[in-house]
Write a structure and sequence with these properties.
Layout (H helix, E strand, L loop, with lengths): L3 E10 L4 E4 L8 E4 L8 H7 L7 E6 L27 E10 L4
């Protein structure tokens, strides 16, 4: 809780269809503060807890812990292309390092 983390990730629909990845985005990792509701979707925030540096984790994120429609409520969004409101997500992520003091 409260740590800034840096992850490489791959996002797929629950049926295995590839959607996006940090590699596809020039290798730019996703950096967020664990526990900050504005930093990451709830399923990712929950899934990262307990990971060790260089650990790899595969998580399935249910719709209620996934994206929201829009950002007006200060939560991550919008829903990526190809996802419906009841679509589960499969995410594979590698925790690169904690980023203290950033």
């Amino acid at each position: 809780e409260g740590k800034r983390v840096n992850i490489q990730w791959v996002l797929k629909r629950s049926n295995g269809y590839y959607v996006d990845s940090s590699e596809r985005n020039d290798g730019v990792p996703f950096i967020f503060t664990v526990g900050d509701p504005r930093g990451a979707i709830a399923g990712l925030d929950e899934g990262i807890r307990g990971m060790r540096v260089n650990g790899i984790r595969r998580i399935i994120i249910p719709p209620n812990l996934s994206y929201v429609d829009g950002v007006e409520d200060d939560k991550p969004g919008p829903v990526p292309m190809g996802f419906g409101p009841k679509q589960r997500m499969r995410r594979v992520m590698t925790l690169l390092k904690d980023i203290p003091g950033e």
